[in-house]
TrEMBL record:
It holds the Pfam family ABC_tran. One of its GO terms (molecular function) is ATP binding. It comes from the Bacteria. InterPro entries: AAA+_ATPase, ABC_transporter-like_ATP-bd, ABC_transporter-like_CS, ABC_transporter_ATP-bind, P-loop_NTPase. Keywords: ATP-binding, Nucleotide-binding, Transport. PANTHER family: ALIPHATIC SULFONATES IMPORT ATP-BINDING PROTEIN SSUB, TAURINE IMPORT ATP-BINDING PROTEIN-RELATED. Residues 6-237 form the ABC transporter domain. This is ABC transporter ATP-binding protein. It comes from Slackia isoflavoniconvertens.
Length: 260
């Protein structure tokens, strides 16, 4: 690999809380190539969200560092987009205003902002809802709006923390298709944090499997076939999900023995 788009190098995170220290991450290393889609899978509380916040420049790790294009991440970066579980939509702003928030922060001129917002809303199928408010949207539409906001910003790195977890199964698959389509069309590097084995296998060219807390990388699974047509129905898709399920069970069982 040439210079990675994103590198997490020796990242450890210890949180100091009222109930003492929590070691969330321990010596985590990940490289994500430009244009690559990586899924991070791991048990609840293993530090997945923490690793994204560090990559986004919203948290400075206790040890180690994140680098984007070889530059140490010291704060939020203009071309890194982050989509969180609750999408971060502002209820008092319209769909178009929400989609244009990133551009507004960048002080993009109004006319250009309107054009880029219109294009992004078109891309995610929300063009007819530009003047609606978030409360009038379904869960899937809110997800698409969060995506539109990321698309307007010409992100070269998209970080997503469980963006589909609130959706029902069918809608979730539809949104997974949308995420895959946008990634194919736009060519940004993408890191998706998820609890869902199927989602990781559907959307990750590489799947990073983490241990229970303190989270570290225990497996990296190549999954280049995710670009195949009808991948969700392929025998290999099911086999890969099964292999991952066993891997995760194994990891959790080993930890339980270690802590017994
Ligand atoms: N700001 C904080 N202060 C104190 N502890 C925190 C903070 N943020 C996270 N933690 C703790 O760090 C650990 C890792 O949390 P994190 O949210 O990164 O994990 P996760 O793998 O994303 O979890 P989940 O899959 O349940 O969303 C957890 O034990 C959590 O309680």
């Amino acid at each position: 690999m040439g210079e990675p788009k994103l590198r997490l190098q020796g990242v450890s995170q210890v949180y100091e809380g009222a109930r003492g220290e929590t070691r969330a991450l321990q010596n985590m290393d990940i490289d994500v190539a430009p244009g690559e889609a990586v899924a991070i899978l791991g048990p609840s509380g293993c530090g997945k969200s923490t690793s994204l916040l560090i990559a986004a420049g919203l948290r400075v790790p206790t040890q180690g560092a994140a680098f984007v294009d070889g530059v140490r991440v010291a704060g939020p970066r203009l071309n890194t987009a982050l989509i969180l579980q609750d999408f971060g939509l502002l209820p008092w702003k319209t769909v178009a205003e929400n989609a244009g928030l990133g551009l507004q922060i960048r002080k993009t001129p109004k006319r250009e902002r309107a054009e880029r917002v219109a294009r992004a809303l078109e891309q995610v199928g929300l063009a007819d809802f530009a003047d609606a408010f978030p409360a009038e949207l379904s869960g899937g539409m809110r997800q698409r709006l969060a995506m539109a906001r990321a698309l307007t910003c010409d992100a070269d790195l998209l970080l997503m923390d469980e963006p589909l977890s609130a959706l029902d199964a069918l809608l979730r698959e539809e949104m997974q298709d949308m995420l895959k389509r946008c990634w194919c069309e736009q060519g940004y590097a993408q890191v998706l944090v998820t609890h869902s084995i199927e989602e990781a296998v559907y959307l990750g060219q590489r799947i990073v499997v983490m241990s229970p807390r303190p989270g570290r990388v225990v497996h990296v699974l190549e999954n280049a076939e995710m670009q195949q047509e009808n991948w969700r129905d392929a025998d290999l898709f099911f086999e890969r999900c099964r292999a991952l399920r066993e891997m995760l069970r194994d990891i959790v069982a080993k930890e339980e023995v270690a802590h017994a």
